[in-house]
Design brief:
Layout (H helix, E strand, L loop, with lengths): L3 E2 H9 L1 H9 L8 H17 L13 E4 L2 E4 L4 E4 L2 E5 L2 E8 L7 H18 L5 E6 L4 E6 L2 H20 L25
Parallel strand pairs: 1-4, 6-7
Antiparallel strand pairs: 2-5, 3-4, 5-6, 7-8
Helix pairs in contact: 1-2, 1-4, 2-5, 4-5
Length: 190
C-alpha cells in the first residue's frame, strides 16, 4: 500500500472519494485554477516570511525552516510542511492556507498530522502549531492535545482501511463542494 500524504487527511475530511480516486482507482486529475493560485500564493508568502519577524506568531526569536520534508514510519505518512519555527521553547509547525476561511477541521487535523511527523523526525514534543490563512492574514493557533492526536490517527486508519478494502465511499460530506472538485467527472451521482 502507498504512503499517504499529510494533505490526504485534509482531502479525506473534505470528501473521502478524493482518496478513493487517488489510491484505489487512480484517474487523471484536472488542475484547477484554485490549485494553481494556491501554489503561487504559497511561494509569494514564503518570500515575505523570510523578511518578517516572528512577532505575528507570538515569538521574539527563532529559526525558520521552510519546506522540510517529513516522514513518519509509524503512521506511514509523509509531507512537506510550509514552515517549521524552532525556538528555545520548542518546535512550531506552520501551514499556509490560501483561503480566508477559518477554523476548518480539515486544516486543523492536517496541522496535527504535521506535528506528529515533526515529533517523530526530530524526537521532540510539539504542543502547538499555526494555521496561517493567507487571504485574511489571520493566524490561528492549534493546540496539539491528546484528543486531536488520537482523532488524527483514526483518520489515517479509516483512509488505510478504505483503500485496503477498495471500498467506494457512499457518502459525500457536502455535495456543495463538488462543483470545485477535480474528480467531479468521475462521480456518478454529481
Amino acid at each position: 500500500m502507498s504512503t499517504f500524504r499529510v494533505s490526504d487527511i485534509r482531502q479525506f475530511l473534505y470528501c473521502p472519494r478524493i482518496i478513493y480516486y487517488n489510491y484505489v482507482v487512480p484517474v487523471p486529475r484536472i488542475s484547477t485554477y484554485k490549485m494553481q493560485s494556491g501554489l503561487h500564493q504559497h511561494a509569494h508568502t514564503e518570500l515575505l516570511e523570510r523578511r518578517r519577524t516572528l512577532r505575528r506568531y507570538g515569538m521574539d526569536t527563532g529559526t525558520r525552516h521552510f519546506k522540510p520534508s517529513l516522514y513518519s514510519e509509524r503512521l506511514d505518512l509523509s509531507g512537506t510542511l510550509d514552515l517549521l519555527i524552532e525556538t528555545k521553547w520548542g518546535l512550531f509547525p506552520v501551514e499556509f492556507k490560501d483561503t480566508a476561511a477559518r477554523s476548518l477541521s480539515s486544516h486543523k487535523y492536517q496541522m496535527v498530522a504535521y506535528a506528529l511527523l515533526v515529533e517523530e523526525a526530530l524526537n521532540a514534543a510539539v504542543k502547538r502549531g499555526f494555521l496561517y490563512y493567507l487571504q485574511s492574514e489571520f493566524i490561528q493557533e492549534v493546540f496539539v492535545t491528546p484528543e486531536v492526536r488520537n482523532y488524527t490517527k483514526k483518520i489515517c486508519s479509516r483512509m488505510r482501511r478504505m483503500v485496503a478494502e477498495q471500498r467506494f465511499p457512499a457518502e459525500r460530506v457536502n455535495p456543495g463542494k463538488c462543483k470545485d472538485c477535480e474528480f467531479r467527472n468521475y462521480c456518478k451521482d454529481v
